[in-house]
Amino acid sequence: MRAIIQRVNNASVSVDGNITGECKKGYLVLLGIGKGDDEMTARKLCDKIVKMRIFNDENGKINLSLLQVGGEMLVVSQFTLYANCSHGNRPEFFASASPDEANRLYEYFVSYARTLVPRVETGIFGACMQVSLENDGPFTIYLDTEMLK
């Protein structure tokens, strides 16, 4: 699994002009699911995301986690994180999971996140979505479970 985590003051996702999910202070998580990912991979990535200490403490030091600041999470499916652009100019997505498997694991990730974070909202899997955000920092991190210990 791969994720882009953006620390935000607020974020929202809309489909056909209707907001389907939004969050205030917290994370916008763009989540890509690859072939071979499973529930254990989803838990590992989610645990890492909610425990990352990338919020400022009372001294202005980046030292607090999403849980410690009472942050929220907006999770948006993003199969394009598995784009392969090594040949030609049109990306290939062969490494991304099939839509059915990706949707299943996306829903699993969200469900698991909701056991850890009080407010988790989502986009609509497979829909054409418009994402709006106010990035705080800006602070953006890329995670790939193949690189996590």
Tally of distinct domains:
1
Helix content: 10-25%
The whole-angstrom Rg is 15 Å
Q: Work out the helix count.
A: 2
> How would you sum up the global shape?
globular
Span between termini? 14 Å
Q: Main β-sheet, in a few words?
A: 6 strands, mixed
Q: What's the structural blueprint in terms of helices and strands?
A:
Layout (H helix, E strand, L loop, with lengths): L1 E14 L2 E6 L2 E7 L6 H13 L1 E4 L5 E4 L6 E6 L21 H18 L3 E3 L7 E15 L5
Parallel strand pairs: 3-6, 6-7
Antiparallel strand pairs: 1-2, 1-3, 1-8, 4-5
Structure notes:
With 149 residues, this protein is an alpha/beta fold. It has a single domain (2-139), classed as D-tyrosyl-tRNA(Tyr) deacylase (D-tyrosyl-trna(Tyr) Deacylase, Chain: A). Helices cover 21% and strands 40% of the residues. The chain is built from two helices and eight strands. The strands form two sheets. Strands 1, 2, 3, 6, 7 and 8 form a six-stranded mixed beta sheet that branches. The model has no long low-confidence stretch (mean pLDDT 95).
Descriptors:
40% strand; alpha/beta; globular; six-stranded mixed sheet; 8 strands; two-stranded antiparallel sheet; 21% helix
